[in-house]
């Protein structure tokens, strides 16, 4: 029994395996406990293994690669069409086994331990930012119940909260003033956590040559650069820059038929966090260009024809293509770079 392809349906405790031979005939259907997977796969001859890109997938991909297997991760949305009839673990494993053998299947790059660690810092930092925003909104809502309204912005909240509560004096119950003090301390703690994680991310950025290379692009800072380097893994897994932009959801959706192309708004597929960083960075680049009258013919022409929000998304998409070119071809960013057109 020579197994050439295996599909593994990952889970927390029980894993389902489905294997086929070189003729596509099913030769393996097996359910394994978590601690049984590694010994079983280590005793198999090297083969192609497919898994969905979900929790723990990168860990298992690295582990199975260590046994000599070729591992491919796929987005669950591309595996779903291959599921026959009702959904269960066995059907999912069979669908994964079928999908991984398709020649036109799109695969997810396998991340290293270091890349996962950097992305974990990004995720935790973003969670603290969300919690801080929720905390600030709660403070504003509670103050509004007592007729006190603070100006917009996190800075105004930090600087004026304590003074506003003290100025109100006896108009506010002692219990409420103590509550505001507690919430303010929690807000300061969240600020500290965000700043510490941001400092750690920047420290990694200064030790990574690829990340420093991306930082030279207008609109790309240390946070964006580190998140992209850790997420993209190998830029050569994308055929061109447009594929990377499409992976980030920065290209138009299509609804074409009958030979008539119809382009809609951006697809918004892929990682929301990465797309947000690129678009906010593009807004900063546009603001700097307008304020300091910087020479950027492409951007100035675009701003003359389109709304700044549309221009920001277009610049973010352009930056994504530039990032692919720098990473895939091992180049340095040049402001005056002009691409060579193919000769007729």
Report on this model:
The protein is globular, with a radius of gyration of 26 Å. Helices cover 56% and strands 11% of the residues. The chain contains 13 helices and 7 strands. The chain has a 5-stranded mixed beta sheet with strand order 3-2-1-4-5. Strands 6-7 form a two-stranded antiparallel sheet. Strand 1 (5-9) and strand 2 form a beta hairpin. Helix 5 packs across helix 9 (222-232) and helix 9 (222-232) runs antiparallel to helix 11. It is an alpha/beta fold and 344 residues long. The chain has helices spanning 34-42, 57-65, 76-79, 89-100, 113-144, 154-168, 174-207, 209-215, 222-232, 241-247, 272-292, 297-305, 308-328; strands at residues 5-9, 14-20, 26-33, 48-52, 70-74, 252-254, 263-266. The protein has 3 domains: 5-100, Nucleotidyltransferase, domain 5 (2-Layer Sandwich), CATH 3.30.420; 113-207; 218-328, no CATH class.
């Amino acid at each position: 029994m020579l197994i050439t392809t295996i599909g593994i349906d990952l889970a927390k405790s029980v894993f389902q395996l489905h294997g086929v031979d070189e003729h596509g005939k099913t030769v393996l259907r097996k359910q394994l406990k978590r601690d049984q997977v590694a010994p079983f796969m280590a005793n198999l001859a090297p083969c192609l293994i497919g898994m969905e890109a979900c929790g723990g997938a990168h860990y298992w991909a690295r582990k199975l690669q260590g046994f000599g297997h070729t591992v491919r991760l796929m987005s669950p949305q591309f595996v779903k069409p291959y599921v026959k009839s009702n959904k269960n673990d066995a059907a999912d494993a069979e669908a994964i086994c079928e999908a991984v053998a398709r020649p036109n299947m799109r695969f997810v790059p396998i991340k290293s331990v270091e890349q996962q660690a950097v992305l974990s810092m990004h995720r935790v930092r973003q969670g603290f930012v969300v919690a801080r925003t929720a905390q600030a909104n709660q403070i504003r809502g509670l103050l509004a119940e007592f007729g006190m309204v603070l100006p917009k912005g996190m800075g105004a909240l930090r600087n004026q909260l304590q003074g506003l509560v003290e100025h109100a004096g006896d108009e506010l119950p002692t219990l409420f003033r103590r509550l505001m003090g507690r919430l303010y301390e929690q807000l300061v703690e969240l600020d500290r956590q965000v700043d510490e994680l941001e400092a750690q991310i920047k420290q990694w950025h200064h030790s990574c040559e690829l990340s420093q290379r991306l930082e030279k692009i207008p609109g790309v800072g240390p946070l964006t650069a580190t998140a992209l380097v850790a997420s993209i893994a190998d830029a050569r897994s994308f055929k061109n820059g447009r594929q990377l932009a499409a992976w980030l959801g920065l290209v138009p959706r299509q609804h074409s038929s009958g030979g008539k192309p119809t382009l809609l708004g951006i697809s918004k597929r892929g990682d929301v966090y990465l797309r947000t960083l690129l678009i906010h960075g593009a807004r900063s680049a546009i603001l700097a260009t307008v304020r300091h009258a910087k020479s950027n013919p492409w951007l100035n022409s675009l701003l003359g024809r389109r709304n700044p929000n549309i221009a920001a998304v277009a610049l973010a998409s352009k930056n994504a293509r530039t990032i692919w070119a720098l990473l895939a071809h091992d180049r340095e960013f040049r402001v005056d770079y002009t691409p060579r057109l193919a000769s007729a």
